[in-house]
Amino acid sequence: MYLGDFKPDPLILAVLGVRKDEVLAVIRPPATAAHYHNPLSEEITRALYDRVSAAANVVGVITPRTAAQAAAIEPFLKDRRNSAS
User: Fold this and answer.
1) Which of 4, 25, 27, 53 could form a disulfide linkage to 78, CB 3.0–4.6 angstroms apart?
2) How far is residue 47's CA from residue 59's CA, in Å, rounded to a whole number?
3) Count of domains in the chain?
4) Residue 62 belongs to what domain range?
5) pTM of the entire predicted model
6) Residue 39 lies in a domain
7) More confident call, 75 vs 40
């Protein structure tokens, strides 16, 4: 994705609760409703969710395109910060 003149907010990591020793991964799921959608992209994205969830120093932020997509993604997510150990 091209962001042109984008300038990140220097406070966003603190707002999101991301520590300085963590990596922020922003993930945009595939356009599942688009005519050009390739189902393989869903497999790749699920593998990405698993990889990010398993990494000790990575915080993932997912930006679903629709409420239905958010509901479909939910079962694949693992919240280490809010889960019981």
Assistant:
1) 53
2) 15
3) 1
4) 12-76
5) 0.69
6) yes
7) 40
